[in-house]
Structure formats: structure tokens, C-alpha cells
Amino acid sequence: MTWSRALKETARSGLSIERAKLTPLIAVRGSAGVALVIGLCLWLGDPRLAVSSAFGAFASGLVTFQRSMRPRPVLALAVAGPLAVATFLGYLAAPHLLVFVPLLAVSACLAGMAWAIGPVSGLVGTLTVAIMVVTVTLPTTVLGALAHAALIAFGGVVQAVLIVLFPVRPWGVQRDALADALAAEADYARRLRQNPVAPFDPAPLMDARLASTVTPRQARRRPVQLHGPRGLAEQLGPVLASLADPVVGAPAQGPERDRARDLLDAAATVLDAVAHAVRYARPVRLPPEAMATLEVPASGPMLRGAARRSAYRLISLLADAVELTDEPVQATRPTTGAERAHLLRPSVPRLVPVALRAVRREARWSSHIFRHALRVSAVCSAGYLLGTGLPFGHGYWVPLTSVMVMRPDFGQTYSRGVARFSGTLVGVAVAGALMALARPGAYVSAGAAVVCVFLMYLLMRTGVSVTSACVTAYVVFLLGIAGEGWAQTVQERSVLTLFGGLLAMLSYALFPAWETPKLRDRLAAWLAANGRYALAVYDRYARPAEGRPRQVREALLDARAARAAWEESEARAEKEPVRHRGLSRTSAHAAGSALATMGRVTMILEAHLPDKDAEPSPGAAAFAAELRPSLERAAHAVRERRAPDWSALRTVWERWDTESAGQGIALRASDLLLDALDDLAEALSRRPGGHGRAARDVRDDESP
């Protein structure tokens, strides 16, 4: 992608405004917390304290809107603490430029490294630096700085208390994640009805697993509806795939295929009903037609073989899903000492070692997180010096804009830069005009600031440009409470904002961390993870008595994580104005599709794992023995820009096919697995502009 096209795409993305589900009650609660701390400080008679406390309440309320599975009060308190400490240190260093700039550089670097922990931690770090550069402009003493820091922390406490006293849809994030996973399985069943080899996206199941990871306190209070359906959703995917697949499931045509389609449609209906019940905490309501379809017919089309076993398993899983979900929604199930079925989430203090390990892993030159931290540090320092040196005053707008714009990847940084500048223009123009014309007093400015923060909370998911306008107007009105002079014009603030955005964009162009060159490494990692998952499954066929279900489960989770890393890298690379470095966009899509098919086939094999008393499969053992070194060679070949060679593995399969006379689910599924691996090799052997095996087959058919 050229620079001109990349800039055009990122600008369009940044300026787009989406329709999103609004949460007015939560927005009212968050803005009420801001209003309470502002009103209290104004009543005490110190407008500057009102500004500090309002920033703390604003940041604490903002982070509770993020998609985190931790309790909302914990998030509010977690952001207020670091913000109070950083602001206090900033107040102490602000009068001394040679001290404050290094402090700002270190704070910005730590904020950049916080993205290694997760997006919510990255946002907390960003807000900490952004608010610090604003609040330290308010003059005060050392004791006053301590009071400012205490009130910033107090703002977080107020938000946490309001969340506890006025809960809005408790467990809503967890319910949505689990309902999305069940709805994704329903959508998968419908797609299989039309396309029996449709790909399966595990992302909703990964989100549901994160949502079901709870602290011991949460486990004691978790509603019954959130206990069991996720595990059933995990089991449903392989069963649906094995039923629909024309090789190991129902035949491609005929009455059995019609019966399979009816079962898939009924399963989708049931899963949608269960998802609706989980999302809205209601009993399950099932249409009688779907229930009739799921009954074993006395006559008519009947499934046979593996498809019949898949159908029975599907009916049993759906019945369990309905039974587990259709409980009194008020009831909870306390976790006893003997019951440890929940996934344990560490408390915030116990999270510190985990966070430090995550930061340490990213502290290397090749890490895009580490390079982002260096960029943020350099840009914030340079922006502060630039803003201070310009004759406009209020130079904090430059580093404020830069730190709010910058993200670890190119696409988000540039799209947010455009959105931030356009939104800031609107916010400064509207708020500045009102301040200049009406010259409101402290209480009127406070009321306008609360309105702006309410709009920001309400419209947060519509687009960065909209929220930037609301945040900018909020800052303008908030500083108006403290009597910040308005000798600075709208044009001057716009110029400073433009400087901040340009610094952020220029820093990525001069010191990039492109994702495109890493695509082959990500693809090789996904191939290796898929291979470990396949080997864990084949080991169960080769040695059923020694089977360890946990081994298969852990390999599956690793494969999902590798796939998510690949898809994230591919999405970032598509927006970057750099060459493909040996892996074109077409090849990347084809290779990803091949590995997704490999995962789907392994998932089908997992659905038919033999019992522990089953006979070992010598063919599966030989296939696994050759698959292991073949995968190692293939992963190395992918990294070295070569196409993998699967001829040795194909030879082993052909010997297995001859000895087994083409019988067995594992044998047939292994043929599909080899086809997926051949597609991977074909995708990686393409040259830019080439069309791969399909195009060559067409040309061969058309040749004389």
C-alpha cells in the first residue's frame, strides 16, 4: 500500500462515525460522579481543586467503560491511584523545567510500556500522562499539590462508590461475552447449513473464556446462568463441524444431508434462545418446531455412522445448555472448597508480578510496544518543550494531543491523529466561542463541563472524532472554572493541537515498528501451534489409554492464541504503507485460510476422540510420528520464505490408507488435513501477481 492510499484509508477510518448501542444510565452515573466532586470543591471555595478532582473522576469514569472483565469499582480505583501519584510528582517538578521534562519522559515511557499488559492498562497510562500535563499548569504549593493529588484519588473513590450503590446491569460484560459466544455458535450452525466446510472463528469463545475468569469473591456471587454454558459452547463447535462435514459427517446429498440441515437449523434456533436468556437474565423460551426437530424420529431420514453419533451428541449438548441456563435468574451458586471449576483471576496486588513479566517480555528492540514507549517518551518531551517555547501559552496542548493520539500501531495512530485534530477543532471552536461570548462564571462552566463529559460517556463508541470534540470542550470549560485566561484564541489552540498530532504521526514515520515484516514469523507460529494441537489429538488416537484431555485443551488454547496474533498482525499490516517483503496480501489471506481449515479439521478429529478402552491406531501413530518433524521443517521454511514440503507426510498417509482400506474417521480427516497443508504450501509458493494452483488448473484445462 502506498503512503497516499494509507493516509487516505486511515483518515477515512478516523473520521467515520458509527451507530452504536448507547448506555444512558451508565453515562448519567459517570457524569454524576464528576458533578459531585466539582460541586463539592466549588462549595469549599477553591476552583483549582475542583479542576483536579474533576480530572480524577473523569479518568476513573472513562476507564470503567472499557471492555475489561474486572469489576468496575476496581477499575475506577486502579486508575485514580497512579494518576494521583503522577500528578503529585508533576506538581513538585513543574517549576523546574530540567526536572519536569525528564519526569515527563519517564512517565510517558512507562505509559507506553503499559500496553504490554493490555489495552485497558495502556489507556490508564495514556490518561495519566495526558492529565498530568494539564493539571500541573495550575499553580500551587507543595501542600496544595498533595491536596490536588488527594482529590484526584477522591474522584476515583466517588466513581467506585456510585458503581456499588447504583449498579447498572450487574455482570453485563460477562453476560454479553457469553451470549456472544453462544450466538456465534448459532451463526456457525447456520453457515454450516449452507456451506458444510465453513470456517469457524474462535474469537467469541476466547472472549467468553476471559469473561468467565473470576476472582474468588466473584465466583461466590456469580449468577447460575454464567456457570456452565461456556463449556458447552466450547464442545458444540467440533460437534457441529463433524456433523456438517461431507467427508466425515452426513453425505453431501440425499435425505441424510436434509436431516443434518434440519438439525443445524434447530441447533441455531436453540442457541439463539439460550444466548438471549443469558444476555438479558431471563428464562429460556424455545419454539416447539425446534424441539420437535431435535427429537429422534421414529421414521423418515436417519443418520448413520459418525454423523449419527454427532447428532446424538449435539442433541445432548443442547439439552444441557437449556437446562443450565433456564434457572432462577436471582440465584447464585457459592463456590465451596471442593468446587474449583472456575478460572481464577488474580487480584490487583497479585497482578503486579504478572504485569512486570509482561513488560519485561516486551523490553526488547524488536518489540512494537517498546518502540511505542520510546516514541511516546520522545514526542511528549519534545512537544512540551515546543509548546513552552511557542508564544501562544497553554503549551500543554501539544503533548496532550500527542499522547492521546499515539498507539502502538500505524493504523490507529494515524486515524486517531486525523480524528483528534478534527474533533479538537470542533470542541475548541464551540467551547471557546461560548466562553468568549458568554463569559460564564465558575458554576456555569462547571455545568457545561458536566454536560460535555456526559455526552462523551454516552457517545464513546460512535467514533474518536466525536469523543475528541467532547473531551476538548470538557477541558476548556473545566479550565474556565479555575479562571484560565482566554487571551489564547481558537486558532492558537488549533495550531498547538495540529503540532501535537503532526509530531505523533511524524514519530511513527521516522521510528516505525512495522508489522508487515513479522507476518511470516506470525504465520510460522500459528502453523506450529496448530501442529501441536493436531499432535495432541493424534496421540489420543494412537494411545487411547494414555490420553490426557488437558493436553488437548491446552494445545487448542495455544492454537487460538496464535491465530488471534496472526489475525491482529495481518489487520495491522494491511494498513501499513510498506512492501509485503515476500508475503503478498493475497498469499497471506490464502495461507490464513489454509491454517484455519487445518484447525477446523483437527477440531473434527477432536469431536470423535476414542474412549480409553479403544484399540490403538498404528496408522495414527505413524502419521503423528512423521507430522512432528514435518511441522518443524515447515515452520523453518515459512520463516525462510520457502514453501513447505509435505511429500513425506503424504507418503505415510497413503501407506495408512492402503493398510486400512480407506476406513476410519481419523484416516479421512487426515486426508483433509493434508489438503489444507498443501493449500498452505501453494499459497506460500505464489509470486506477486500470480494466481496459484487454481489458476494453473484452469490454464491446464484450457490447453490443447
Automatic annotation (TrEMBL):
<feature type="transmembrane region" description="Helical">
    <location>
        <begin position="99"/>
        <end position="117"/>
    </location>
</feature>
<feature type="transmembrane region" description="Helical">
    <location>
        <begin position="373"/>
        <end position="397"/>
    </location>
</feature>
<feature type="transmembrane region" description="Helical">
    <location>
        <begin position="74"/>
        <end position="93"/>
    </location>
</feature>
<dbReference type="InterPro" id="IPR049453">
    <property type="entry name" value="Memb_transporter_dom"/>
</dbReference>
<feature type="transmembrane region" description="Helical">
    <location>
        <begin position="124"/>
        <end position="143"/>
    </location>
</feature>
<feature type="compositionally biased region" description="Basic and acidic residues">
    <location>
        <begin position="568"/>
        <end position="579"/>
    </location>
</feature>
<feature type="transmembrane region" description="Helical">
    <location>
        <begin position="21"/>
        <end position="43"/>
    </location>
</feature>
<dbReference type="Pfam" id="PF13515">
    <property type="entry name" value="FUSC_2"/>
</dbReference>
<feature type="region of interest" description="Disordered">
    <location>
        <begin position="568"/>
        <end position="588"/>
    </location>
</feature>
<feature type="transmembrane region" description="Helical">
    <location>
        <begin position="466"/>
        <end position="483"/>
    </location>
</feature>
<keyword id="KW-1003">Cell membrane</keyword>
<comment type="similarity">
    <text>Belongs to the YccS/YhfK family.</text>
</comment>
<feature type="domain" description="Integral membrane bound transporter">
    <location>
        <begin position="384"/>
        <end position="506"/>
    </location>
</feature>
<feature type="transmembrane region" description="Helical">
    <location>
        <begin position="495"/>
        <end position="514"/>
    </location>
</feature>
<keyword id="KW-0472">Membrane</keyword>
<feature type="transmembrane region" description="Helical">
    <location>
        <begin position="442"/>
        <end position="460"/>
    </location>
</feature>
<keyword id="KW-0812">Transmembrane</keyword>
<feature type="transmembrane region" description="Helical">
    <location>
        <begin position="49"/>
        <end position="65"/>
    </location>
</feature>
<feature type="transmembrane region" description="Helical">
    <location>
        <begin position="149"/>
        <end position="168"/>
    </location>
</feature>
<keyword id="KW-1133">Transmembrane helix</keyword>
<protein>
    <submittedName>
        <fullName>FUSC family protein</fullName>
    </submittedName>
</protein>
<feature type="compositionally biased region" description="Basic and acidic residues">
    <location>
        <begin position="694"/>
        <end position="704"/>
    </location>
</feature>
<feature type="region of interest" description="Disordered">
    <location>
        <begin position="684"/>
        <end position="704"/>
    </location>
</feature>
<feature type="transmembrane region" description="Helical">
    <location>
        <begin position="417"/>
        <end position="437"/>
    </location>
</feature>
